[in-house]
Amino acid sequence: MRNHLLLIGVILATSGAILGFTASFLVSRRWVARATLEGAEASASRRALEKESLTPMILQSLSFRPKLDFTPMDELIEQIRENCAFSAPAPNRLTMEFTDDDRDAALEFGNALLHRLSDLAPGAHVTEPLRVTETGPTRALFTGAGLAAGLLLAAIAWLGFRRQTVSQ
Question: 153 lies in which domain range?
């Protein structure tokens, strides 16, 4: 009987890991393009997000221009603004982040924003070059959570079986 419980535990743990791994494909990935400029002020970030600055960047973008076929320009500009974040970790230092579901779009538009910020802040220079990183839970995290859930179910089943055999 003990071998059967061990087999059930292995099956539940493996099933949990497989379900967790499979579920990881259902979660969309987010990519963040991040760079830091020295000599740029916060006012440059506000000007970079104005319609007059974003419109030409969208029209030149290989990733965002096709979206104009089904998304109005004003709505697309609003989406881009929502995906942008600026912070000033120190005086005259500006960190820019652009987030998107597509790695190439995050890289392309992050690069366009970085160039626009450089144009708006003459004399500014890049101290941390543009890098694109993935955010959110990874496949390993999902697989580990599934494995843990499977092991938890196996432990509950073992305790339930143990109580039945003790009470008999």
Answer: 2-26+139-167
